Amino acid sequence: RKKCLLCTNVLMIMAASIMGCSKIAQSFELILIGRFLCGVSLCVPLHHQYAGEISPKKLRGFANSTSSFFWSLGKAIGQISGQRELLGSQYLWPMLMASCGFPALVQLVTLPFFPESPAYLLMHKGDHEGCKKAIRQLWGEGHHQAEIDDFMKEKATMKNTKILSVLELMKEPAFRWQLYMIAVLTATVQLCGINAV
């Protein structure tokens, strides 16, 4: 999880650099390429997963809601700083386009000091000691055996569950309506007024 987040941050910094250089290069195509790279980065789902896995059970819902809050806050800050009086001027708009690289840079610098997800270490790597060490680093000293037992139950459940590829998932009739629902919700999220909120 952590390595994937780090790689995604590198991708975001590349995208910000490309968009920031578009005026110097006099190429609107660089903006399109940069926005495409921003779109294919996995920041939001990875943040949800990592934040949910490193937080204690009682704070998991709160930790997962932080990405939605900061996503909306980022949109609001982008719209405010995009005003002509701020960064939306003829000379400063490349800085506005490149500003998406700043949070990625902060995360790229700070994330190496965080441990890997305890659930990932235990369920995918089979590293019991690494899991316990990560839990102590994240949640402090204490009795965390209940959480470790929950991870083990989830791992046992996963062994009996067939992992589908994306193509298999799309072909599976049992998941068709869920996929339609997710696609419609994702496609229409811009129409729901979240930017205004």
UniProtKB/TrEMBL annotation:
Pfam families: Sugar_tr. It is a multi-pass membrane protein. Residues 1-197 form the Major facilitator superfamily (MFS) profile domain. It comes from the Eukaryota. Its main location: membrane. SUPFAM superfamilies: MFS general substrate transporter (SSF103473). PROSITE patterns: MFS. GO terms for biological process: D-glucose import; dehydroascorbic acid transport. GO terms for molecular function: D-glucose transmembrane transporter activity. Keywords: Membrane, Transmembrane, Transmembrane helix. It is found in: Membrane. One of its GO terms (cellular component) is plasma membrane. The keyword Transmembrane applies. PANTHER family: MAJOR FACILITATOR SUPERFAMILY (MFS) PROFILE DOMAIN-CONTAINING PROTEIN, SOLUTE CARRIER FAMILY 2. This is GTR5 protein. It comes from Eolophus roseicapilla.
